[in-house]
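S.,

Sequence below, as promised.
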Amino acid sequence: MQEEKIYDVLIIGAGPAGLTAAIYAQRFGLSTIIIAGSAPGGQLLLTTDIENFPGFDEPISGYDLMNRMMNQAKKMGAVIVTDWANEIRTDVNPFNVISGEKTYTASSVIIATGANAKWLGVKGEAKFKGKGVSACATCDGFFYKGKDICVVGGGDTAVEEALFLTKFANKVYIIHRRDKLRASYVMQEKLKSNPKIEIIYDTVVDEIIGDTKVNGVILKNNKTGETKKIDLSGVFIAIGHHPNTDIFKGKIKMDDSGYIIIDKNYKTSVCGIFACGDAADPIYQQAVVAAGSGCIAAINAKNFLENLNNSFVKH
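The prediction came back faster than expected:
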């Protein structure tokens, strides 16, 4: 079933990037619809306390922050659909986005589908997400002052997170499944000079343990099969992210990792389609950066619509 209304802007995703884009689009007088997924809010819904988002002098939960953003977008007049976008048609104008049995039509599209951290899939990981298990050192490192923690991974990201966490933690273990790190030479040299870091090679996390929060991990040596327990308060997973961009494959240009390629104006390879937030950002992946990029994408969508012959809808 296809809706008769043609929206000015259709936003796919309802994290900080998508909701900020919606707020700005509505302020510009553009009719806006968000295909939000089943749980609007994105990855921040997994974050217990946020202390680095401007405007909050006390910690705010990820759920509360995203709920405020969503309510703000609604009050501005944005339509929010709690369903998934299954397909996009870029060969028609206006664009069509299929969600379940419905097809939504819009003169411009902003992709804000985000990226999910890759998880280990071990026992205890899901139970303790937000209670000692994290995929963002920048977000959560502050909560581990004077504590022992570990970082799982062996690339540049894992090393960068481990070095960052030494600003707060008493001890940082790097748990790596191979016999040498994949991180660059320069990053590895930085590790050697930091007395707070200990690398455990040829080892995987077999289980994350605790009661109401993490208090340790069970490690398993890949070569000997030997297991041992380490007492610690936090487990940071740094094995990469996967951008939620599968439905755009073959329709919009992406890099080898699946991140959408954009220009300085957040335009994709398809005229009239923009991308913002973590789906187009393999580097920063911070809520405040995503929100800012949503603002920029909305501004450029407005500029695009204003230049369309007879397509800009005045309200």
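The mean pLDDT is 92.

Coffee later?
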